[in-house]
Automatic annotation (TrEMBL):
Pfam families (UniProt xref): Lipocalin
Segments forming domain Lipocalin/cytosolic fatty-acid binding: 6-133
Source taxon at top rank: Eukaryota
Positions in coiled-coil regions: none
UniProt xrefs under SUPFAM superfamilies: Lipocalins
Protein name: Lipocalin/cytosolic fatty-acid binding domain-containing protein
Native source species: Ameca splendens
The organism's taxonomic lineage, starting at the top: Eukaryota, Metazoa, Chordata, Craniata, Vertebrata
Length: 134
């Protein structure tokens, strides 16, 4: 079922992203720059089942390699050491980050050919919409 996420996706809509970044402690100048970005997201799977997710923007390239249901360590965008587990639940790709004093959940799903990404931290929710590139 991960196959539906495979490909390259471009951000087309973002709701509540600036407020979410503020909650994460991102400085105002960085929030302004981040809000103007239209990152490209790509996902691929190799023949051993290793998933590679990349997020590309003008300022940064982030890459994660993992297998479903296997915890791994990563450094978050806020420079925090986190344990992350990615699962597939009811057609959604769920990414749970936990670190000392915090938790962040990303839910990716395909609706009407678009990838909808919800980032949830406490009561704060960001919704970002991506369209698949040809």
């Amino acid at each position: 079922m991960v196959e539906q996420f495979v490909g390259t996706w471009k951000l087309t809509f973002s709701e509540n992203f600036g407020e979410f970044l503020k909650l994460l402690g991102v400085p105002a100048a960085q929030r302004q720059m981040a809000n103007k970005q239209k990152p490209i997201f790509s996902l691929s799977v190799d023949d051993q089942g290793t998933i590679t997710m990349q997020s590309l923007s003008i300022f940064k390239v982030t890459e994660l390699k993992f297998k479903l249901d296997e915890p791994f360590e990563e450094t978050t965008l806020q420079n925090k050491q986190a344990t992350t587990v990615v699962t597939l639940e009811n057609g959604k790709l769920i990414q749970n980050h936990t670190w000392d004093g915090g938790e962040l959940r990303l839910e990716r799903e395909i609706l009407d050919g678009k990838m909808i990404v919800k980032s949830i931290m406490g009561n704060a929710v960001v919704v970002r919409t991506y369209e698949k590139e040809a």
